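[recover] target loaded
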């Protein structure tokens, strides 16, 4: 475990055909490692030079070639099963995406701010939206709002927050225990539910920031969100027991489930407004949707007041119809039989 009294962290980077970016990511992570830390890159069913680029940049490489099952959740389950003895000496495992960006003092920031007790934490995800399209800005707005408003409320109430796919910090023993249930493409949803049902609280470390690129076009955003939707359809059925248990926890559980499944909030706000107008003849039903509209507007206004660069996001809101169209397109795309949907085309 601790080396000279210092917490040891293993960074896990999962990559599939990311040769164009993984070298830069590895170099950034290597800069933040201290004595006792390690960086492991899992090249999952790659057909390019991802493994070579990562190795040349200073990472320990593990190549997975099980093509019948290819997702980050499945790759994580495979790595935990095959190399658990390698991971047990570490205090925490930090999971990053191949395009995640971190500062040189990132791991030290985690060590300085992590609570004494706890087995699972989520770092702050800062979307890289500068010089992006309005769709990218709206995607960033949605992501930031969820962390600045409801996540902060959940933290104050000591309710669990959701894990977000990258910037996830979890102890090895906990991950190894649940590895067999990670056969999914939505490892963030799966981990959030599996940990919560085991009574493991998920906290936040907002001081440690992971910079995450947002899709730079409507088509890329549609592919990414279609993958999310497809994963949600799967998760609702596959983790139905965990969802039922979380529902039974009351408001703290409902709050977590809303963060996992009731999104994007801008789309929900638009749909609620449409339904409120559609059912205007049935005032009692319309009133329910108007209540949702007012709640959504209050949420948006508070968020815009809190967020930096609010002018950028207010201008981006003028493109809300295009953003809604992108989400509808994503839902349709998620119902097709395309085997792999990725924001960036390989």
């Amino acid at each position: 475990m601790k080396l000279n009294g210092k917490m040891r962290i293993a960074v896990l980077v999962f990559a599939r055909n990311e040769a164009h970016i993984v070298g830069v990511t590895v170099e950034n992570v290597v800069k933040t490692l201290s004595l006792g830390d390690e960086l492991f890159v899992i090249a999952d069913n790659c057909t390019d030079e991802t493994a070579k680029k990562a190795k040349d940049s200073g990472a320990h490489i593990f190549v997975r070639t099980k093509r019948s099952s290819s997702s980050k959740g499945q790759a994580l389950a495979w790595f935990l099963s095959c190399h658990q003895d390698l991971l047990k000496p570490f205090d925490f495992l930090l999971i990053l995406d191949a395009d995640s960006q971190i500062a040189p003092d990132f791991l030290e920031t985690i060590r300085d701010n992590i609570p004494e007790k706890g087995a699972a934490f989520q770092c702050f995800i800062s979307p890289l939206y500068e010089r992006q399209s309005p769709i990218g800005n709206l995607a960033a707005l949605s992501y930031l709002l969820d962390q600045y408003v409801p996540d902060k409320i959940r933290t104050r109430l000591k309710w669990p927050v959701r894990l977000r796919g990258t910037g996830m910090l979890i102890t090895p023993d906990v991950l190894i225990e649940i590895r067999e249930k990670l056969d999914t493409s939505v490892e963030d949803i799966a981990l959030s539910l599996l940990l919560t049902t085991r009574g493991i609280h998920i906290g936040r470390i907002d001081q440690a920031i992971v910079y995450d690129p947002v899709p730079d076009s409507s088509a890329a955003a549609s592919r990414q969100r279609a993958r999310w939707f497809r994963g949600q359809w799967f998760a609702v059925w596959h983790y139905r027991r965990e969802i039922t248990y979380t529902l039974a926890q009351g408001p703290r559980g409902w709050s977590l489930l809303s963060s996992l499944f009731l999104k994007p909030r801008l789309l929900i706000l638009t749909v609620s407004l449409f339904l409120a107008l559609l059912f205007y003849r049935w005032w009692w039903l319309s009133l329910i949707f108007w209540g949702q509209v007012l709640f959504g507007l209050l949420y948006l206004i508070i968020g815009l007041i809190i967020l930096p660069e609010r002018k950028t996001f207010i201008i981006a809101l003028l493109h809300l119809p295009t953003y809604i169209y992108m989400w509808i397109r994503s839902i349709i795309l998620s119902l097709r039989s395309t085997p792999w949907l990725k924001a960036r085309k390989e």
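[recover] notes: The mean pLDDT is 89.
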